[in-house]
Amino acid sequence: MTPPTEKLAPVRQDGKARPAPDDNAFGFARGSATPMEHELIVRDRRFDRQHKSPRWWHSNDPVATAWYNSVSASLPRGEAFFIDTLKPFRDDLPPGLRAEVRAFSKQEVNHTREHVAFNRLVADHGYNVESISEGIQAMLDLTEGRPKEFNLAITIALEHFAAIISRHLLADPRYLEGADPEAAEIWRWHAMEEIEHKGLVFDVWLHATKDWSAWKRYKTRSLIALLITKKYFGNRVRDAIGLLEQDGFDRRTARRRLRAFLWWKPGMMRRMFFEWAAILMPGFHPWKHDDRALLGKTQSDYAAAVMPAE
């Protein structure tokens, strides 16, 4: 049976970027580069719960497996944070943007559900991944009491990091080559939707901070992007090393092997660094890099059973 999807009706069909005036008829504030005809599709994928991926599911490589397991273990609590971060802004958004927030939240709920199941398989192989989840929660607890716009900027930074990784996963088949097919499909599905909604939180930010000066906007989002991405990436490295230690590696060897995997071969972090750094530039918007062509290559598997928008 084809998995159900829910498709938000596009606002325009002429291929142009969203218009510049603040609070225009479509409700998107000045500075948005999201294509007007772009749409979010909720693909309610449920992967095979009976499938048992091997312990080293990525190419029988403990290092690659540890890296992706570290990322996956961080996702459920992180994506719940993203949804909660948008809630205080939802009622004040114009209808078009509010509808996109609903679709974004449904996508993230589905991602959380599938990664919880994936993480359970990882735990079944004897890995302690709960400590990774608890570490994410401890990091997110530091946001308690902060201004709601601060948490929105954190979400922008993490969504940008996710979108860049997703772009590489879909653009270069080497990154998932040799991986267990079911596990690889989970990552491709997730990557597709991360690219698809990569500009949503930024558009909410533009609306929420429309009365801020350009300098305040830039200073806040760029500083938070630098700090939170460094901390998140550092924690993923730390936790991947911890998983490798559970496989019997000593810390020094685990660190060396992981560094080679991330920065040399296949070297995703080296290849994506300057794309990530775009967030530190004035005038940044995620959709200034239009990679919708990657969605067209991937989404044919999910094109049927489109449900009308609410």
Descriptive keywords:
3 strands; three-stranded mixed beta sheet; hydrolase; 310 residues; Heme Oxygenase, Chain A; mainly alpha
Average predicted local confidence, pLDDT: 88
Judged by helices, strands and strand pairing, the structural class is mainly alpha
Briefly note the CATH topology name: Heme Oxygenase, Chain A
Q: Architecture, according to CATH?
A: Up-down Bundle
| Shape estimate | globular
State the major sheet.
Answer: 3 strands, mixed
The secondary-structure element order is EEHHHHHHHHHHE
Q: Span from first to last CA?
A: 23 Å
Overall number of domains: 1
Protein name: Metal-dependent hydrolase
Organism: Qipengyuania spongiae
Keywords: Hydrolase
Region (Disordered): 1-30
Q: Explain this structure to me?
A:
InterPro entries: UCP07580. Keywords: Hydrolase. This is Metal-dependent hydrolase. The structure is a single chain. This protein has helices spanning 62-90, 95-124, 130-141, 148-171, 181-196, 200-208, 214-246, 251-263, 268-277, 292-298, and strands at 5-7, 41-43, 306-307. The protein is mainly α. It has one domain (55-300): Heme Oxygenase, Chain A. It has a three-stranded mixed β-sheet with strand order 2-1-3. The radius of gyration is 19 Å and the shape is globular.
